[in-house]
Amino acid sequence: MDEGLFDMSEPTNPQPHPGSAANVAAKAPLAVRMRPRSLDEVVGQDHLLGAGSPLRRLVEGAAPASVLLYGPPGTGKTTLATLVSQSIGRRFVALSALTAGVKEVRAVIDEAKRRLTRSGESTVLFIDEVHRFSRTQQDALLGAVEDRIVLLVAATTENPFFSIVSPLLSRSLVLQLHPLTDEDVRVLIRRTVADPRGLNGQLGLAKDAEDHLVRLAGGDARRALTALEAAADSAAATGLAEIDLATVEATVDKAAVRYDRQGDQHYDVTSAFIKSIRGSDVDAALHYLARMIEAGEDPRFIARRLVVHASEDIGMADPTALQVCVAAHQAVQFIGMPEGRLALAQATIHLATAPKSNAVIMAVDSALADVRAGGAGTVPPHLRDGHYAGAARLGNAQGYRYPHNVPEGVLAQQYPPDDLVGRDYYEPTTRGAERALADRVPKLRKAIRGE
To answer: Does pTM surpass 0.85?
Structure first.
């Protein structure tokens, strides 16, 4: 990692040379330019940055302890490592586990030894994506960390108790970073709009556009600023004085809607086949099946469409539909054509005549919409995995209640993240086998939520 990326100072020359460090910094991504220059600018992670906390003391240069920063993307791991690098009297070296090997690690350690012996200068070694280091690469760090030849600051998005060797864990503080709250992201966005390192007040930001950016961020500062930068570029290019909601939506969604298939005969017939099944017209469905078979359509493609629509259009109204379609897919692969047409026809008839429910696709798509809009809160501590060394240190699996310990097998307990408590996704119909679920699901929700 280039240390120049961490230089957040404003250029003193109003017209820097095109190749100058100041000009390069000015062209850096918005998320890099807005990286905090002090603890006072850090947004979020209040649980780690209180007065006298190990992380604050480390950043302030008063606590020579190696740390493992564990948390999702965009929560400030690289930022905190940068702030450590700025501590007085410390040399900063950054390595990425994606590109560095044992040779590079040992070279850093050797140079750190020379500097420590010659001038007393200590070295901070930042390793990003440390979970990608092999056991051998991690072992190469042990001696230098234990003897404090280097102060290790390592960042990982994966649970370190799974991905980091025990000796290195025991020599380091494990600090867990949390996703930013919506308010944290909002503060960051507003600061960026006004800050000279950001948009410098040259563009306004509509309230509904700001709200949308907060939802899109999902607690990830980098994602929020990347989306803001793209929207700002688009607004500036079209001469807008303010970033509005339409600009944000168009900019962010552009990649998602870029791919579009042409409506030729192949897709028209396939569409009619599926819609005939959904409409319970068994005869029309068989007609379009015959046309596809006769045209030489890949029978595996037909079988895959049937498997999909067993869940999309029938779902829990007839749970056997999926089993029939999976069996048809296997039969086609096993016996081939033309005999495979029989299994395809049987599955088509089953789906077309079955009671219909789209509750499955509505439920999962509603859940996905919440997640994509940023509604992916932290897993409640009592639900987290507690079956590994160190889980208790993270507060995992404390207070979990085992449903089988009560006669009903259902008890009051929070399962979703805090922000999604009370959110209903699955709404069963009263058709077919799903009728029983239409009665049972509301009762389950009341029992679980203690209503």
So the answer is: no
